[in-house]
Fold:
Amino acid sequence: MDISIILVNYNTREFIKRCLESVFASKTGFTYEVLISDNGSGDGSIQMIKEEFPKANLIENNSNLGFSKANNIAISKASGGLILLLNSDTKVESDAIDKAIGYMNEHPNVGIMGCKILLPDGTPDRAARRKFPNPSNAFLRLFGLKKFSDYNIETPLDQEVEVDSVVGAFLVIRRAVIERIGLLDEEYFMYGEDLDWCWRAKEAGFAVMYYPGATIHHYKYGSAQAIPFRTIRMAHEAMRIFYRKHYAADHSWVFNQFIYLGITIRQYFVLAINLFRAKKTVH
Structure:
């Protein structure tokens, strides 16, 4: 099996239907399997998948285990030499999977690959290629000074480039890399697990690449739409976990408390903004 395509579903019936239609319509000569790890959906998703996508391997977890754990369950059952984590609220271009596999086969030094991501309005998602968050760029973003932050990479969006991290909406990783660095960290319930995986891959000597030759469409926040406030809390908790794991040991206790306080202030600021916005935002 060339690649195992893994989707986590939690009450995203219409999103995942569109996503699976695009996956099974893909044009590729490579072999693939599709595994869906369902976190106890109650919106008819499970029945729809069974009826309309019988070729998909459905894993019923019966409760919301979070993104990382649900993916890990599917990874443990997958047989592909490559693993693709694909968000249920995406639609892949017909050649995206084929190009992604071809790219990985041609670049054995690459451990993780992400693709070009288009938002619903057709504009490219700049977050598809990122540097790791750190105290300085996080501070600038916190106080509305994003243009001075180096979090997003400024090379042309159609240029292949090595990055610190790609996003979990479409993340291809080699099985050999997982065997080396381990599965997703299940301490991350939602958000942050992709950054953490890329950190560990680079730490182990693998390249993380942004490859715009493959393209998907991302409708964003599929599973998060119904629970925006809880989602905001989980996103900021992911920031705390990432900082604690990868930066806290290099700084004093006092400095770390300022960082955690800043994350908490930002969390409540985003919560306050969402009270007055029709279109919710997580970050």
Remarks:
- The chain has nine helices and nine strands.
